[in-house]
Please model this.
Amino acid sequence: MNALFSLQRIALSGPAEVGEFFDRAAALLAQGASPETIVWSVGDEAAATGNLFCGEPPQPMLAEAAPVAPPAAFMDLARRALLHSASDRHDLCYRLLSRLRAQPRLMSNAADPDVARLDLLARAVRRDMHKMTAFVRFRSVPTETGEEFIAWFEPDHHIVAATAPFFRKRFSSMRWSILTPRACVRWDGVRLALGPGADKRNAPTGDALEALWRTYFGAIFNPARLNLKAMTREMPKKYWRNMPEADLIAPLTRAAPARAAEMLAAAPTNARRAATYKPADSAAAGAASEADDLASLAASIKTCTACDLCRFATQAVPGEGPRDAPLMFVGEQPGDEEDIQGRPFVGPAGKVFAAALERLEIEREKVFVSNAVKHFKFEPRGKKRIHKKPGAREIAACNPWLHRELELVKPRLVVALGATAATALLGRATPLREVRNQTLEAPGGAPMRATVHPSYLLRLPDRDAKKAEWRLFLQDIDEARRLSGL
Model:
């Protein structure tokens, strides 16, 4: 019974103070504090709720200790789980931290109740953050210092501060505020400011642009692809009351069967012939020619708006490697992981590429790796972004960037990984089978070889075929290494 009176209450300054939690947890672990002896509280919660067995007041500070260094698998989940509204989130994370000291492989046991609970909380927070980025609707409000945009959102968890950088990046040129019951955030064009929660009555109820937005929403609504169950799963009804287009959903849904029937009955129209695009007139050409080194070229690439891909991708992905690399590899375009990280060949295909380099004892730091197209082209499919092959327009728009990379690196040999890369380098549609095992001339006069893209090896369903193609791929890379003198 005496042990009950040794409980410590640890008060955190706010519900989203993840860094503060880890600092306190490190000090507690250094003291050897058992999870059963800790009572976590947030803000004024300690004074308001009290605890029958806590004889001492909340401790404002603990002794300094070395930072906690748990596995990355734990940290990735815990940073999100600690933003959950569940009252046991701090107990759970501290208990796992304590257990990980004796069980370093604990996170690999998905069936463990604590691990499963942590994953559940983290997924709920990630989903809430996604909904915030998707369903916030700003409304224009005139102020004495100019136009400002204000939105109202009702998150389930403490995600406002963690999600605010997304809006800062997306809407950096305008002044805006997001009001929520849990916390508010404001961007004044220079810095983000966080504040306490607000009442919905403080948020505007409409603006002059909403009629135009509803017209646009009605125009893009496709009755032939309506799936009400899928729509409500992705856009739950709880968010509708804060979205100006929501009052159109019911009438558009009722009219969808009749409109879809009209579309099917309508006569087909002749397809328009695609325009031919040439890279010489690209707005990127001037900026590329002005770049004197790879760093300035990469900075210019990240601002490129020469084609529509920049509107949907997270970021442009420039080439990577030393300026004097004797061997240069050119792929097709960034994938999902590359788009997120901003580096070429770091996703599944990148791992195949890395395995080939390692097998042939080629250090990646000594080669230059790039893509023909610098933005990720994809097709949304549920929660996934599915790779979509870039067209002639995107290849042409990115050609100045690729050519300038070649001019700056001056490789002894450049390798086209896949048909799209070969097309970009040769300036014409080129079947891979016609150029593989040949030495051709790339822009600027550099010798060029071609082989399959590493993603091709991932797509092969037959195990024997995959092994055979893997051997051929290694032979191609090894021959390129030999010719480049690497």
